[in-house]
Each structure stands twice: as C-alpha cells, then as structure tokens.
Write a structure and sequence with these properties.
Helix content: 40-55%
CATH architecture of the largest domain: Up-down Bundle
Distance between the termini: 32 Å
Largest sheet: 4 strands, mixed
Bound molecules: glutathione
Number of helices: 8
CATH class of the largest domain: Mainly Alpha
Number of domains: 2
Shape: globular
Order of helices and strands: EHEEEHHHHHHH
Number of strands: 4
Structural class: alpha+beta
Length: 209
C-alpha cells in the first residue's frame, strides 16, 4: 500500500491523481502546514514539505515530480509515460521538469515571498517578479502546446496531470485562460477525466462543472 503525506490542493494532488488514474489504492495522511502538530514530520520529509510518499516496501520518497515519473513508469499498462528510448520520452521529461523547476518554484515565490529573502522589505518585489516569471513560463508553455491537445500532441501523459495541478495555482487562472485558450482547453481536458475529477474536487481545485 502507498501512503501519501498530503495537504489538500498542494503538490500532493498530482501524485493522488496519478495513482487514481492507475487505479491504485492509497492511504492519505493529512499533514498540517509546516508539519506542525505532526509527530516529527521532518523524519519523513527533511524539508517539511508535502508531498511525501511511502512506498509499499516502506521506503520514503520526496519530490513530487520524481513521484509522478516513478509511478507512471511503475504502471506502464496505464500508458501515462512514453517508455525510455521512445521518441516522446525527451519531451515528456522536459515538460515534467519544466513544471517542477520553473513553474513550481515561481509559484512558491509568489505564495511564500517571505521564505525567499531575509529582508521583509523585499517581499513585494519577490511576489511581483514571481508573477512576471509565471506569465512568461505560461507563454512558453502555450506556444509549445499549440493545438495539443496534450503536451505530447495526441498522447496523454502524466506530464499533463502535473502541469494542470501547477496551472491550477496560477495567481489569476482566469486571466491565464483568457490569454491562452489552448491552456484552458488542456486544463479542462485533464480535470474532466473521470478518474481525476474526484481528486480535483476533494482537493478543492479550480473546476468548471
Ligand atoms: N520540490 C518539492 C516542493 C514541495 C513544496 O514546496 N510543497 C509545498 C506545498 S505545495 C510545501 O509543503 N510547503 C511548505 C508548507 O507549506 O508548509 C516537490 O516538488 O515536492
């Protein structure tokens, strides 16, 4: 059994959605912000972040993108990841890491500016720059997505799920959708998947019925 240490609406939603697509049962453990009140959460995740994933062999993983890549490879029959060596593998990894390193980090700077400087006076500037960076990163993504409908063209993958979770945190998601109709279509395709909609709803993520 997998145990997912999570918080509603956080990066754990991507891992939850992948496991839902794979039809794998998981135990969810809600972790309070900063792990406060949790009995030594730092022993599970030394950075005190969610998600963390306990694997059936009792070992632990941190880093949401690594979990998504690992799980998609673990259940190849679900076809959430192009196999190593296949022509789409490079683009798949590129976009997984793009969302993990560029978009996720800009989101964290936007939502937690105080954590990114020792100078409280810097917070407003950090937040403003994070929003500029996010808009640039969505522009880059929209251009690459084109008519899609998925990141890999006609082929749906775990990268689409991961991207949609990160897009859901956009400071103004309606503005992103207004600027990029293809991102809106992509997001809605992911959120409307029968196995993913319940995850979106239980995580209170942006969703049009
Ligand atoms: N690189 C990490 C980042 C994880 C992360 O920053 N998670 C946020 C929530 S989305 C968090 O736990 N922040 C600390 C907190 O909110 O207490 C990953 O991808 O798993």
């Amino acid at each position: 059994m997998f145990t997912l240490y999570m918080r509603s609406g956080s990066g754990s939603a991507a891992v939850e959605a992948i496991l839902a697509e794979c039809g794998v049962a998981i135990q969810l453990v809600d972790v309070p912000r900063d792990g406060q009140g949790f009995d030594n959460y730092l022993a599970i995740n030394p950075r005190g972040e969610v998600p963390s994933l306990r694997l059936p062999d009792n070992s632990l993983m941190t880093e949401s993108a690594a979990m998504v890549i690992y799980l998609a490879d673990l259940y190849p029959q679900v076809r959430l990841a192009p196999a190593a060596g296949s022509p789409l593998r490079a683009a798949y990894l590129r976009w997984m890491l793009y969302f993990a390193s560029a978009v996720y980090m800009a989101d964290l700077r936007y939502f937690y500016p105080a954590r990114h400087s020792v100078d409280p006076a810097a917070e407003a500037g950090i937040k403003a720059k994070a929003e500029i960076d996010l808009n640039r990163d969505f522009d880059i993504f929209a251009k690459a997505l084109g008519q899609g409908p998925y990141i890999l063209g006609e082929v749906f993958s775990a990268a689409d799920i991961y991207a949609a979770v990160l897009i859901s945190w956009a400071p103004d998601i309606e503005a992103v959708f207004a600027r990029h109709q293809n991102i809106k279509r992509h997001y809605e395709l992911v959120a409307a998947r029968p196995k993913i909609t319940p995850v979106w709803k239980s995580n209170s993520m942006f969703f049009h019925d």
